[in-house]
Amino acid sequence: MRKVSASTTIFALLFTTVAHGFLLGDPSNGKLIHQEKCAACHIGKFGGDGSEIYVRDNRRIKTVEGLMAQVEFCDRQIKSGLKEDQINDLVIYLNESYYKFE
Predict the structure, then answer these.
(1) Which domains are seen in the chain, by residue range?
(2) pTM of the predicted model, to two decimals?
(3) pLDDT digits (tens, 9 = 90+) for 18-57
(4) Cα distance between residue 2 and residue 86, in whole Å
(5) SS3 assignment for 3-65
(6) Greatest Cα pair distance in the chain
């Protein structure tokens, strides 16, 4: 078994953090969570695939912090019971797919 140095581990964590706008998470898992927990409601409200909520001209979300707050709000409203890592995954997926915040 190859031993990984502490500096290599720290570098990997820092790189991952910066790559995802200071959040750790898995956007592919976020996509699955979105399909399971979010899409049906957004389709019901906006039609199509529901993505209009993210790309509309008058969207309310203007920052990654606002996106995090909105995801947490929706989680509470629909009582989906997402864990913190799942919320991070979902935020990263939404940001990479739609919002593109730095």
Answers:
(1) 6-99 (1.10.760)
(2) 0.76
(3) 344 567 899 999 999 999 999 999 999 999 999 999 988 8
(4) 30
(5) CCCHHHHHHHHHHHHHHCCCCCCCHHHHHHHHHHHHHHHHHHHHCCCCCHHHHCCCCCCCCHH
(6) 53
